Structure prediction request, 99 residues.
Amino acid sequence: MQQQNEMPKKGLRRVIFDYYAPRAGEVSVLGDFNDWDMKAHPMRKDPDGLWQKITYLRPGRYEYLFVVDGRWCSDPRNPKRCRNCFGSENNVIDVAPRR
Prediction:
């Protein structure tokens, strides 16, 4: 996951979520930014098997996970995590304001 440009009019930051799963048939990113809605942010796979989704988020702290073919998965490239109410962990992203 990476942060990029800001949308100047709304103060939103562009965030790219990615997950490598070449054999997966379906991947989505879920988090408190989309009310953990499995259908809100489906990802697209490139020819190399990297799934991506571009989102625009306000600066702040967000928790998220991926759902890969129906299985909840953490982001292996993001070591920031926090405990959730189910006894497992969510990944955490801090979206920085524009400097």
User: Anything to note?
Assistant: The mean pLDDT is 91. The chain has one domain: 2-95.
